[in-house]
């Protein structure tokens, strides 16, 4: 799930690389694109008056159906981009899916990755994402993938040219699959 909907986003490219790696495994891979779930800015008064928006319910349902989630997020001012934080906030408000109680993030295995034009590769933003997801009960993996200087990190076909980042992403995807298998919420 890329945490950006910007065309040409380095994080969308990194998410595509992860999808390519995961698609050659036995895993059923689904791309969750936040552009498909437009949501108003979270507001408790809005929720009281209008309820949880349908797109938040659909997003929560999609997340709850997964054994694992890879979030590939940019860093905005050393923190979580507002689009991603808003989507997490709304999805966390969903308490039932198909009349069954649900906490979309509870027990979900989550891997984190980031691509950034800066030298730190989005590290600080991922720390903030990690805190939020752990508070919601997700099993956030310690291992992560960072791609610093992301403008130079891909070839013309969108493949990673940075050997360290490629190895890190491959390792993260393998660990995500292994952890999801061992902690499956649906098996």
UniProtKB/TrEMBL annotation:
GO terms for molecular function: FMN binding; oxidoreductase activity. Gene3D superfamilies: 3.40.50.360. GO terms for cellular component: cytosol. InterPro entries: Flavoprotein-like_sf, FMN_Rdtase-like_dom, NAD(P)H-dep_reductase. Residues 3-146 form the NADPH-dependent FMN reductase-like domain. SUPFAM superfamilies: Flavoproteins. This is NAD(P)H-dependent oxidoreductase. It comes from Jiella flava. The lineage of its organism: Bacteria, Pseudomonadati, Pseudomonadota, Alphaproteobacteria, Hyphomicrobiales.
């Amino acid at each position: 799930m890329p945490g950006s909907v910007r065309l040409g986003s380095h994080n969308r490219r990194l998410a595509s690389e992860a999808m390519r790696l995961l698609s050659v495994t036995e895993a059923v891979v689904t791309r969750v694109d936040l552009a498909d779930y437009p949501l108003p800015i979270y507001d408790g008064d809005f929720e009281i008056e209008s309820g949880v928006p349908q797109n938040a319910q659909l997003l929560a349902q999609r997340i709850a159906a997964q054994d694992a989630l890879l979030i590939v997020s940019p860093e905005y001012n050393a923190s979580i981009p507002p689009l991603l934080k808003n989507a997490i906030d709304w999805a966390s408000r969903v308490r039932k899916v198909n009349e069954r109680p649900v906490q979309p993030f509870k027990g979900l295995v989550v891997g984190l990755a980031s691509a950034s034009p800066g030298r730190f590769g989005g590290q600080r933003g991922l720390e903030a994402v990690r805190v939020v997801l752990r508070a919601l009960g997700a099993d956030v993996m310690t291992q992560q993938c960072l791609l610093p200087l992301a403008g130079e990190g891909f070839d013309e076909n969108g493949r990673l040219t940075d050997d360290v980042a490629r190895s890190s992403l491959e390792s993260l995807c393998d660990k995500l699959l292994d952890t999801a298998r061992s902690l499956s919420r649906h098996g």
